[in-house]
Amino acid sequence: MSAARGTVAAGPVAAGPVIRGLAPADWAAIISLEAAAYAPLGLSESPAVLRAKAAVSPGTCFVARTGAETVGGYLLALPSPPRRPPSWGRAEPAPALRENLHIHDLVVSPLLRGRGLGRRLVAHVEDAARDRGCTSVSLVAVGGADRFWAALGYVAQPDVAVTDYGASAVYMSRSLASREPSPGRSASPAHHPSHRRS
User: Fold this and answer.
1) How far is Cα 170 from Cα 153, in angstroms, rounded to an integer?
2) Between the CA of residue 21 and those of 18, 71, 121, 170, what are the distances in Å?
3) Is the pTM above the cut of 0.85?
4) Segment 103-157, tens digit of pLDDT
5) Which of 32, 121, 164, 188 could, after both became Cys, cross-link 75 (CB 3.0–4.6 A)?
6) Residues 28, 131: contact at Cβ < 8 Å?
7) Are 155 and 137 in contact (CB under 8 A)?
8) Under-50 pLDDT residues of the chain
9) Are 117 and 191 a contacting pair, CB within 8 Å?
């Protein structure tokens, strides 16, 4: 999806979450989190489509683990030309990673929302985008998530068509030059609720 989908909820986080690349064992939790976040919006994608989108750019897809076995959230990002988000609901060839990285999905477990995990995942993928030479990051905000993204410096571009993401979907982007790299990927920024699918 191209709506920077994401979900964040309230609940205690024991030791600080660890953000790392996806592993095959993470997929059951990712599929469950995705369905819980997006099925109510009519925007849930099939497991095959999610896996295909992650396979396009595995180095820019991450999970946040809150314990040895618990996936508390995930973020899927893939290359996409500026102002041209990936199609929702289907896999398609992606361009080589160049100037723009597109956050397709961001979901945080309802039990962990309000703890800054969504912001940490975003900072982590922005750092990964910079490391790969990208100059911007884009997404499609759904379910009112544009407020979350605006707080992170993303700017709405209402002239970009994203109708397959629903009537309230908003294409947003930000220049990576407008923020320094994260001081530490393990730092815990303040939380803001979010729903984002891109």
Assistant:
1) 14
2) 10, 12, 11, 27
3) no
4) 999 999 988 888 889 999 999 999 999 999 999 999 999 999 999 999 999 999 9
5) 121
6) no
7) no
8) 1-3, 6-14, 182-195, 198
9) yes
Whether residue 25 contacts residue 131, with contact meaning beta carbons closer than 8 Å, is answered with no
Residue 87 has a pLDDT of: 85
How far are the Cα atoms of 35, 68, 129 from residue 65, in angstroms, in the given order? 19, 7, 21
Cα pseudo-dihedral 174, 175, 180, 185, rounded to 10: 50
* Residue 140 to residue 4: CA distance in whole angstroms: 5
Which of 111, 116, 165, 121 minimizes the C-alpha distance to 143?
A: 165
Phi, psi (deg, nearest 5) at residue 63: -120, 155
Residue 88's nearest CA partner among 33, 155, 166, 152 is 166
Are 14 and 67 in contact by the 8 Å Cβ rule? The answer is: yes
